[in-house]
Amino acid sequence: MANYKDEKLTEEMYGVPTNETVRRGSVVDDVFGEIKEDGPNYRDVGWLGTVALMMKTQIGLGVLSIPAVLDTLGLIPGIICLIAIAVITTWSDYIVGVFKLNHRSVYGIDDAGQLIFGRAGKEVFGIVFVLFWIFVAGSGMLGISIALNAMSLHGACTAIFVAVAAIAGFLLGSIQTLGRISWLAWVGVIAIMTAIFTCTIAVGIQDRPAAAPQTGHWESDYKLFNKPTFVEAVSACSSLVFAYAGTPAFFSIVSEMRDPRHYTRSLVICQSAVTITYIVIGVVVYYYCGSFVATPALGSAGVTVKRVCYGFALPGLLVTTTLVIHLPGKYIFLRILRGSKHLTSNSMIHWGTWLGCTGGVTIIAYAIASAVPVFGGLVSLIGALFGTLMSFQPMGFMWLYDNWGKQRNGKWYAMVAWAVFVIVSGTFLMIAGTYGSIVGIMDSYKAEGGSSAWSCADNSNSVGLA
């Protein structure tokens, strides 16, 4: 890492005001302690690397559930809901960066919870953070197994593919710093974007989607407006929230940035690209497929295109799994070693603790991916319950915490109303989405009898991919 020699250089790198102190050959960070040249550099993510990490936590194969959301809500209401959720979550993401600059000792959402709600807030948000990402990691492993099944035409037992995904995720997720993972994030972003745009182009140039009748005249039955039930509507909105639910990871990302002042620049680029991608993919695929869109939509253009798309998507799925193993592992690692000299050294205690944390996360995620019946519905439930809780309510409270004592004028009252709206809307979506997910799990189990644990059956035509 760089040899920081004076306070002025540190202020240029880390912003003003700063509580970080400088020693020759090292920087003392409020979260990680003394970062030495011979140890892991936990402050080495540039603003472009931040863009890649942000986009990879947001864009997964979950984007391909958006055409089905538009089918449920109708094209126009669906786009309106997507943009509304994009605006709210972008504001939430922005508040993460502002809160970090105001409180340099904050590493994760649990630290923010402790400042606002005390020790109870720290523990509740910490547990929810870890559970959320572990379940997403399990979904990532499932996604890799689906891709391998699709590409190989079920060339091996699905349980073997899930185990392979777990091993690969553990090895890459155990890379020590996000700075070293950021180049992988670019690979993942390019891979997943190639896959979804290949699928989009394919459905546009083909005569009809794979699920539609293959004989006789056919035209898309897309709807500008639809009449979903309450459960269908809230489940669709929960899918949109989950598509933007990378917010809790942004705490970890901004904490490892070289210059956190560039966070907002990275955020604007990320959210603009993500939202444009979601709208383009959703509208084009739904317009050409109508109610015959597959979920996930990679199967909409037929078996051959599906295999090609999953081939492109596989590196992206692997990087997603890498990140969502790394994030909870890093959180647990910091809870154990924060304040210790072993946190930023290459000691045996450092490596043993680090590998134990990422290994533990991997094992639990693997067990969930392999053993839990009606897995897609369960992931949807976790996304609705925990993903919303991590992306809406805390940021409203964070703004109120930092601004409650400031001068009260028209702008202040408007922002208070907005923060309260974010808290209330997040709570409604969390409760309603959880209810919708539970109903969906019950209906799925009644219809299919659930799925067996450690199954060898081909899952490449299943749904529930996060």
From TrEMBL:
Keyword rRNA-binding: no
GO MF term (any one): L-amino acid transmembrane transporter activity
Signal peptide: none
Keywords from the UniProt entry: Membrane, Transmembrane, Transmembrane helix
Localization annotation: Membrane
Chief place where the protein resides: membrane
Residue spans crossing the bilayer: 45-69, 75-96, 124-147, 153-172, 184-205, 233-254, 266-288, 308-327, 348-369, 375-400, 412-435
Protein name: Amino acid transporter transmembrane domain-containing protein
Taxonomic source organism: Knufia fluminis
